[in-house]
Amino acid sequence: MSQPDAETTAPAAPETDQPPGVDSAFDRAIAVRTRPGGVVHDVTIDPGWAIGDKPNGGYLLAMLARAAVESATAVEGLIHPHALTASAHYLATPGPGPAEIHAEVLRRGKRMSQVRSRMLQGGTARVEAVFTLGRLDPTSEPWWDDVPAPDATPMEDCVRATAPPGGQFDLPLMQRVDLRLDPAVTGFAQGAPSGRGEVRGWFRFTDGRAADPHALLLAVDVLPPATFELGSTGWVPTFELTAYVRRVPAPGPLLVRHRARLVEADIVDEACDVWDSRGRLVAQATQLAGVRSATRGPPLGRSHGRPGIADPTRVDLPAGHPHSPIALRKSTSTTRPDFVLSASDAATTPLTDGRGFVPPPIVPAPEERLFFGCD
């Protein structure tokens, strides 16, 4: 299939940054309308900041942070304009359209204040987050830093993340952000994941809006899941996300890296680091998420020094391993096509050396393998 027209489906970002709030799609999307009393805020969830039909978790977090700042300002004035930390729990997926955010100031302090924000839609709690608010010093420099920026491919040599061709899956978010994925860790897009459990790339807004502390909350959740590079594709819903905003970023694109640290029991924890154009660490995050796809066998990389699977069609595992009797059948779902595991007769599986077997090749569905296309 041919790739979509990049100029019509993914407009290029301007070369110069625009200040936050200057006719910015992001600022309009996270805008809150505060009711008298400063506690309840009316918001509109913009479908343009979604993956498929699900709003991006970082986008929702930025909206909750905006409400937290407004509620704190109503109580103490604008002395703590930045969300320094955020701990969010994603309870139920909100849909596009009107919603409410109730923000409660838990503690007031000279240097920091704490605020709890809860998003409700249709009377149901959707997302809840607790923020520590403060004021970042743009002149501060690190006393010690042990998180150097990776040796990433230059942005101009990276590939633009777009929706898969043929309209198989919609990615409205990619219309709003210019996300350039490092080709060194995007084998999943060609059906050949590296097995490293890492995804990284460059991020900026397509309308040229400059990155600020609110934008960093989006940046920590903007990349495809790191599990894609482990050979596991499909939906990865976030349960909990903790973010630290460390400093105001310098103008220019952000370098973002996601790493999968542990995948077990269909749950993954990912660590995210974000650097600005000066190579300074500006944000960090950890999230716990579900791994909803079964298009995976044993890991492709290494685990605690044990070699992983160099050839995904050959698997040496103990007899009776839960992945050994793998048979794939296509899901009947029309909204989230994926694969599911079903049991097969392990006795019919040929053994390789008395410890394992040779299962059939695991071939992701095209709509999953091309979850993020490249223009």
Please give the structural blueprint.
Blueprint: H1 6-9, H2 25-29, E1 33-34, E2 40-45, E3 50-51, E4 54-55, H3 57-76, E5 82-90, E6 97-107, E7 113-121, E8 124-134, E9 159-162, H4 173-176, E10 177-181, E11 198-205, H5 213-219, E12 238-245, E13 254-264, E14 267-275, E15 281-290, E16 327-330, E17 339-342, H6 366-369, E18 373-374
Antiparallel strand pairs: 1-2, 2-6, 3-4, 5-8, 5-12, 6-7, 7-8, 9-10, 9-18, 10-11, 11-13, 12-15, 13-14, 14-15, 16-17
Helical content band: 10-25%
- Compute the gyration radius: what is it? 22 Å
- Strand sequence of the main sheet, in spatial order? 1-2-6-7-8-5-12-15-14-13-11-10-9-18
Beta-strand content bin: 25-35%
Q: The CATH topology of the domain at 151-293 is what?
A: Porin
Shape: globular
Average pLDDT, to the nearest integer? Answer: 79
Entry summary:
The protein is mainly beta and about 375 residues long.
Overview of this protein structure:
The protein has about 375 residues and is mainly beta. Among the domains are: about 100 residues, Porin (Beta Barrel); about 140 residues, Beta Barrel (Porin), CATH 2.40.160.210. The chain contains six helices and 18 strands. The protein has a 14-stranded antiparallel sheet with strand order 1-2-6-7-8-5-12-15-14-13-11-10-9-18. A two-stranded antiparallel ribbon has the order 3-4. Helix 3 packs antiparallel against helix 5. It is globular and about 55 Å long. It starts with 5 loop residues before the first helix and ends with a strand. The N terminus and C terminus are likely disordered.
